[in-house]
Amino acid sequence: MDLNKFETVGEQRWRIPPRGAMRVPGIIFASRELLAAMDDKVYQQTCNVAALPGIVEAAYAMPDAHWGYGFPIGGVAAFDAEAGGVVSAGGVGFDISCGVRLLHTGLVEQDIRGVQPALADALFRDIPAGVGSRGALRLGAAAMDAMLRGGARWAVEQGFGSPQDLALIEEQGCMADAEPGEVSAEAKRRQRDEMGTLGSGNHYLEVQRVVQLFDERLAQAFGIRLGDIKISIHCGSRGLGHQIGSEFLRRMAVAAAGFGIALPDRELACAPIGSALGQQYLGAMRAAINCALANRQIITNLARETFARLLPQARLSLLFDVSHNTCKRETHSLDGRPRELYVHRKGATRAFGPGHPQLPPAYRAVGQPVLIGGTMGTASYVLAGTATGMGLAFGSACHGAGRAMSRHQASRLWSGERLRDELAARGVLIRSPSWRGVAEEAPGAYKDVDAVALAAELAGLARRVARLEPLVCIKG
Amino acid sequence: MPQACWQHLDHGADIGVRGYAGSLAEAFAQAALALTALITAPEGIVEREAVSIECREADPELLLYDWLNAVIYTMATRGLLFGRFQVVIEGDRLSATAYGEPVDRPRHRPAVEVKGATLTELEVRRVAPDQWLAQCIVDV
């Protein structure tokens, strides 16, 4: 990326002045090095998003941003319905409400060292992962609709976990205003066998240990101590979300001209928030958010059963559950006035600061846990939302390391089996149905997650709390 | 006439599928084969089942989008992988038969699940008098 295209407007903040069809500026949060290494397409896509009707403040890209389809991955954009704002299926992405859930175990590293291989094998056997895997649950029509309305709350009612889990999930585990009636029969059919499955690609379940603390006070508030064992679950709304994404992307692309919206890229397909199509998408997308929340709740329960057999002293409880492909109606203060906005985060998480009314009481004083998923060979991070971040990008932060190269390049450079052996020698056990899939997800195919987390902190988006390294990785 | 073939396109996080062939229909078949190749080697799939897939759309690019999504949907809901596609396109109507077998995880070692076709880099055009191209980025 050519840095001369930008104005620097603060620490780790790069501004693209509005030009051409852009209604607002573009702002990329990154270190000089991360920005220089970013694909030019991130610049172009950020400019394109800035040209959409009703966008407010700016089109943002997080430090882990990379070339997406339509919106960049790592993109954040907010729209005002009263100013002709739009909702975009491409601005949410196909894997609606893909997210990360972090669990405490009450264990420390020495508790699991002796059983690490057995634990890896048992988790791999018990948690359906990869192409062709099926969950144990089959939902009929009424149960499917109840799940799409109730999310993790529905899952708890079915016996997957306890009511205490719900307080530590965004939206308390249930996204309001979901409309199962707007979800097609095909999307529901695609989900029939996929409840409680991880999926493939970058999705995983990891057993991690806390290797570094950056802020003792925040770590204590989140229940994180050095040497703790945590479990990280990264997955989304499975086939149902993918089908909803595909269907509405097409419908919005076809309808855009009728709404008088000129799209710089067809993938930016969108509809006015107040239109029937916009409302139908929001209802279906919220149902998909519930599907993802229910899915992570069921997987949590599977992990609990596995741990109960192998390490009965473990107590798996939630630290937090955040989604990173969503569009949510939120109230933000602009020029001292509260405005209701539809905030798209595509490959970006919420990072609400201290005092936000939507935070669970346990974290309200310190800010929201921001969960950044890393790669199987590097590290993941816990950050905390900040007061300054609320004014920078609508309380948003990065979601992962962010890819640095394509899957093709990665599979040419690495062999899955060799990676497995190298990581095993470093004490990280990988289990996967596909070694080519592992090669495509090689740690070297991603940006430096340490640099991404540091950039988020220096930019003021969120504060680093803890760094976690994997011990076991179940890869789809 | 150049031989029909498929390719993958590099994309930052995802990947593209591209089919080349002497006819529009065969280019669509090749693009679908590229889709299969993201998951497993097409030549390792035994033809045990034949499934009919139909789509209707006047815009050739949206027809490709619909076709690839129909293949993805059929693979996902029926647990199948396809090693060969026979495609006929007449006007706005596409009729196809996909030949394959149920996913056999130890044998196929499926690498990745395809979530959906996207409108990015979506192109259907005649690139030479006797050659068609059909391509798009897919989300994995």
Descriptive account of the structure:
- The complex is a heterodimer of chains A (476) and B (140).
- With 476 residues, chain A is α+β, with helices and mostly antiparallel strands.
- Chain A has one domain: Alpha-Beta Complex (tRNA-splicing ligase RtcB).
- Chain A has helices at 32-37, 40-49, 109-113, 116-126, 141-157, 163-166, 185-191, 216-222, 238-255, 276-310, 387-392, 407-413, 416-425, 435-440, 449-459; strands at residues 7-10, 13-16, 26-29, 55-66, 73-79, 86-88, 99-108, 204-213, 228-235, 270-272, 317-323, 325-334, 337-346, 348-350, 369-372, 380-385, 396-398, 429-431, 462-475.
- In chain A, a hairpin with a 7-residue loop joins strand 15 and strand 16.
- In chain A, helix 4 (116-126) packs across helix 10 (276-310).
- The relative contact order of chain A is 0.18.
- The mean pLDDT of chain A is 96.
- Chain B is of the alpha+beta class and 140 residues long.
- Chain B has one domain: Archease, Possible Chaperone, Chain: A, domain 1 (3-Layer(bab) Sandwich).
- Helix content of chain B is 28%, strand content 42%.
- Chain B has helices at residues 24-39, 60-78, 105-108; strands at residues 5-10, 15-21, 49-56, 80-90, 93-102, 116-117, 123-128, 131-139.
- In chain B, strands 1, 2, 6, 7 and 8 form a 5-stranded antiparallel beta sheet that branches. In chain B, strands 3-5-4 form a 3-stranded antiparallel beta sheet.
- In chain B, a hairpin with a 4-residue loop joins strand 1 (5-10) and strand 2 (15-21).
- In chain B, helix 1 runs parallel beside helix 2 (60-78).
- The longest helix of chain B has 19 residues, at 60-78.
- The radius of gyration of chain B is 14 Å and the shape is globular.
- Classes of the chains: A alpha+beta (476), B alpha+beta (140).
